[in-house]
Amino acid sequence: MDIELRFFASVREQVGTGAERVGVPAEVTTVGALRAWLRTRGGQWEEALAEGRALRMAVDHAVARADTPLAAGCEVAFFPPVTGG
Questions:
Q1: Pfam families this protein is in (predicted)?
Q2: Least confident window among 1-10, 64-73, 76-85
Q3: What is the pTM of this model?
Q4: Average pLDDT, the chain
């Protein structure tokens, strides 16, 4: 299944790209599984998408949780939480 990835702010800076189209393995069916799969790239990917790191995710512009399912052609975004003041 092919999906579009988007990375914003500090996540984009760490992974070195703002967007990427990837083919994910059949077992990657949720946002959480995608995040874990991307961490296997190692290095900055592992750090930027670390399990304990506060990170927001969205699927097709809607806030997503780790158990949100993926669909072919969807867009998944990763970005740091926003604070106001």
A1: ThiS
A2: 76-85
A3: 0.94
A4: 95
**Could you count the other beta carbons within 10 Å of the beta carbon of residue 34?**
25
Which amino acid does the sequence have at 77?
A
The whole-angstrom distance between residue 9's C-alpha and the CA centroid of its chain comes to 13
Joined tokens for residue 9: 């702010």
24, 61 in Cβ contact below 8 A? no
Is the domain defined by 2-79 classed in CATH 3.10.129.10? no
The tens digit of pLDDT for each residue in 13-47 reads: 999 999 999 999 999 999 999 999 999 999 999 99
One-letter identity of residue 58: A
- The one-letter code for the residue type at 36 is A
Burial class (CB within 10 angstroms; exposed 0-12, middle 13-18, buried 19+) of 14: middle
Query: How many whole angstroms separate alpha carbon 4 and alpha carbon 54?
Result: 22
Residue 82 has a pLDDT of 77
